[in-house]
Amino acid sequence: MNLKSKNTIRTVFLFMAITLSSATFAQDRMAMVAPAAKSIRTIDSLSIIRMLDEENLSNPASSLYPNWSNKYTTNYGVALPKEFKIDLRSFHMPCKSRLVTSHYGYRASFRRNHYGTDIKVYVGDTIYAAFSGKVRIVAYNGNGYGKYIVIRHPNGLETVYGHLSKQLCTQDQTVKAGQPIGLGGNTGRSTGSHLHFETRFLGQFIDPEKLFDFVAQDVLSDFYVFRSNGKSDRVTANSEKNGGEGEELTEQQALAQAKQQESKEFQAERKQAVRSHIHRVARGESISSIARKRGISVSELCKMNNLSKNSVLRPGQILKYS
Fold first, then answer.
1. What whole-number distance in Å separates Cα of residue 115 and Cα of residue 316?
2. Comparing C-alpha atoms, which of 180, 137, 185 is closest to residue 163?
3. N or C: which terminus of the chain has fewer CB atoms within 10 Å of its end residue's CB?
4. Cα dist from 307 to 28, 147, 175, 296, whole Å
């Protein structure tokens, strides 16, 4: 083979090697770029979702409510929609207690309606936001709610938390479901420490126990359909099968039912008092000294009362120890 042929063969091999190297390099670059592009798309999607959530919380249910006010509680002056589907799936219990001491409805002993559900809590127990939303009212009403909070939610509901000992949020603050917003108390027109919890839609009261099971600490269904004719239904996410709410009671029937219910509530509170033991904090007492006095560990006492080992106790504060 002459020199010219050898040079030709060498040139061909060199060209092929360069071509293969370029193709491999291009593939490697493509492989590096593809995951990065996918990651960027994921980040963009999360950013969009986060922006939408923030927008919903900054002006919750703006299509339903004509304006935003930190003053009035129920007067909206708008026509109710014929039907509206309320999403309950992101619900968080407003407190850890499961004991309902007073139900929604007519109270024979007070001869007036009770527009919420009373749940037994002790002074200092943590109260949580039931849904994500924006705090509309943080105020005090000595003849009614005492220290109370009203939160408006993107699902159209407003929730009310009454008789608090302390409010941990401010007006116009956005909150997440399950975020602490206050402490249980006995302020306002109250005969004992408890949480008065209300659910409203455009100022219309809804029985909270038609939406939530406080004993099971869960919603009764995924959705609740509000109807302006009063015949609202619960709806699950997997089915559109509706359940009726039953016939409206006459005043005489309501009185009889309220009397029977009050008797049940009295018995429930009596049983609860027998099962539970409480300690009223005296001046100078600490969590460790109370734990020694009551014969339980500090960690158990803290867990029962949602406290930390470094929590400062107030004289007169009620603690559960069994």
1. 30
2. 185
3. N
4. 56, 22, 22, 15
